[in-house]
Amino acid sequence: MRYKAFLINEDRGKAISLEEAAEILKKNCKDAVKYAKTSNNQIYRGVYNNHQFRYIDPKKEKPRKSANTTNYYTLLIDNSKYWKSFPKRSQSLICSTTIERVYGYGNPYQVFPYDGAKIGVAPNADFWISFEDADLLSSFNDRIEMMMRRMNVNIKDKSYKNITDAFKLFDDRVKEQGIPKMKDRFVVDDMVKWFKYYTGNLLQTVTNLLEPSTNDFELKTIGDKLPKEREVWTDSKSIMVMVSPMATEKLMELV
To answer: Over 50: is that where the pLDDT of 186 sits?
Structure first.
């Protein structure tokens, strides 16, 4: 799943003309255009679409959900106090600073966010492998569901409240069984390695595990130098330009 979940089937935004794209870039995307012209490290994403130029406002699109998996970690991150200054993952364009990462997920597009856009930067090429506990997100959603089943707790990923309510019930039932006993069971028997940090509050445990600064995530502004081979995301209005001589080069001549 991982990165692919956020690139496939994302025909969002609307098609615009070359002239409209150029006008918007000149008026609203000066930093992104300057960055694109002076650096070989742009922002890209793959889209199954054939329109050369697209405008998108991610905040006005339907909130995105993880594909092929449950939505627990996305809801937890979007509602975490630690991630408050970052663009919300559910309302963002998920991109890469390396064009090779987006091949295979549709046509490659170069992304030009509006001036002042905030850019979340993962410490690796894939968000799912960007946390200190290497297996955290690769198994996080499945293990949350497994732990809930063990304690006979029903959990849904429809809203943040669904998750927090289930977590509170889980805490109550773990305390009834005894925290040391249940930590042994989950850590040793079920290999939920990160549960060793649990002290009676599951929400706080996972919130701390997903904390951005301790996992080397960064918050940048468009125009800042971005590292190569990184997954990045933004909730800014953006112009997307198909990477081709007919589109990219022609547009750059006008701006």
So the answer is: yes
